[in-house]
Automatic annotation (TrEMBL):
Organism listed in the record: Periophthalmus magnuspinnatus
One GO BP annotation of this record: lipid transport
Topology within the bilayer: Multi-pass membrane protein
Domain Major facilitator superfamily (MFS) profile: 44-465
Keywords: Lipid transport, Lysosome, Membrane, Transmembrane, Transmembrane helix, Transport
Family: Belongs to the major facilitator superfamily. Spinster (TC 2.A.1.49) family.
Protein name, entry field: Protein spinster homolog 1
GO CC annotations on file: lysosomal membrane
Amino acid sequence: MAEHTSDSAPFLSDDSESEAQDETRAEPQGGPLSGVSSRRSLLTVFILCYINLLNYMDRFTVAGVLPSIENYFEIDDSKSGLLQTVFICSYMFLAPCFGYLGDRYNRKYIMSVGIFFWSLVTLLSSFTPKQHFWALLLTRGLVGVGEASYSTIAPTIIADLYVKSERTNMLSIFYFAIPVGSGLGYIVGSQVSAAAHDWHWALRVTPGLGLLAVLLLLFVVKEPKRGAVEERSEEQLHHTSWTQDLQALRKNRSFVLSTFGFTAVAFVTGSLALWAPTFLLRAAIFSGERGPCEEQQCSSSESLIFGAITCVTGILGVASGVQVSRALRSRTQRADPLVCAAGLLLSAPFLYLAIVTAELSTVATYVFIFLGETFLSMNWAIVADILLYVVVPTRRSTAEALQIVVSHLLGDAGSPYLIGVVSDSLRREQSFLWQFRSLQLSLLLCSFIAVIGGGFFLATALFIETDRKRAENYDPSDNEPIVVPKSGRSTRVPVSSVLI
């Protein structure tokens, strides 16, 4: 049976060298196992990457113009935080539905419908009148439909196109789009808003690009065969009920613990994504480097700089995380969760320093943000890879959906709103000093959560080997794993004998 993970060298037998060479061999005479040519597979990855970039660009366009939105609607921090929360909530609650559909039906059609709906609603949100803040909340909530249809399914398509080191490389490309798209959201949002002197225009950039994504999905992307690239038999691809899927995932300790670790990543990134540009602007106003917002338009410099930092740190973080993990795999089979833990634990002190030094030195603040975001970004591709190799193919979309629900429910669904509520509760008076100070104190929560997340990834390292092998040797016929020896016949052992 072929290994179904990206870099699986620690788990290979003595003839692992010959297996590794198989990855570079030409496609079999009967065509590729996935049913998709190598050229179209690569094109598919780039299209999925483009859509991923577009989704995150749209998500953080609002954050890039948040001070202007606050002035326009005359709202406080708690209501501002709701803009991100309503979006994440709809995205989170719809994810299981699309996860169920994605494991059973044509995935590119599901994504196409969701992205078309997302583009339409995003365009409608740009026409919200001043008296109806609730309408902006509603449309931003409906945008989550498109992301739910895409984020739960896209990684599973990549998993059905590539295995081993190729999968890791393609996931890296895919997840580069998250920080780069987020950074572009700040940049495009702030600069379009400044050029048009109206923040509404910032929300009118991505809908047209979304329609292009739909056309690319329909006419270029080809649906790959589930699990075929991993040489899974028909019996191994037998679908179980959704309830059985959930029960199996609940017992998968690596999946559960890494999901909680990723929840901490979502909490921190969600908080910083919405509030960092606003916090930096308030720090600049407090220190006298910037003047107060004039009428409905605020300075866009902080959003531009933060966006550029997010793009660069995302590329560096994702790339370094994958490379460090790959180098460590020759020494330990637990490299992936250990690198994720290190990323979170190292980001915590730098984020703390960025927050406490904001009023003293702008340069130091941006340096600490750069370092903190770089370490935080090390997790993206690795967490996705962990999920794909500890979960069997027929449960991956459901697993993606469940991870989305948990990580957003306990992470960035509530963190922007929570930061805003804490900020409002700490504010003693309506002055520039307390607008800055209250938000500064509330953002310190991010460093504490990052440390907790690092602990969950350390716990994941205890179970990763067993759960990975169980997924590789999965046989649904009797729910007992197949043990494949280096030579001789395959044997079966009771489940209890392989459990820790």
